[in-house]
Amino acid sequence: MAFGLQDSTSDGDSEVMNEINMTPLVDVMLVLLIIFIITVPVMKHAVNIDLPQASAQTQHIKPETISLSVDAQGTYFWNQNQVPDGQLSTLLQAEAPKEPQPELHIRGDKAVRYEFVAQAMGAAQQAGLRKIGFITEPKI
Length: 140
What we know:
With about 140 residues, the chain is α/β, with parallel strands linked by helices. It has helices at about 25-45, 90-95, 115-125, and strands at about 65-70, 75-80, 80, 105-110, 130-135. Helix 2 packs parallel to helix 3.
């Protein structure tokens, strides 16, 4: 015990011992020291690898953006120019092989039937366009 009574046989006085026993404190500190000695090398363990150096240059060419709009009647507009019936797939197929491939932004009217937007997406997928996005108005 940290605070105990002194041996009553020595003096006969039963005074409280006012010294702290340091042995348990030293034991706890030594255990913590051992734990830290064991865990620190594990936390800093790393594999040394000689990585190759890359000499690639960043691309500064931005892909072209195509705006495909669909009005309420289902008429398609390619960059604000009306697309004749049946010509949408030909335009999309002409854009697909370009490098970098252009981004297709589809703007659908609020009142348009989903069928027309789905047809545009299907034609873009069949043409091979991979970057398709939708343009919407934010709620205010």
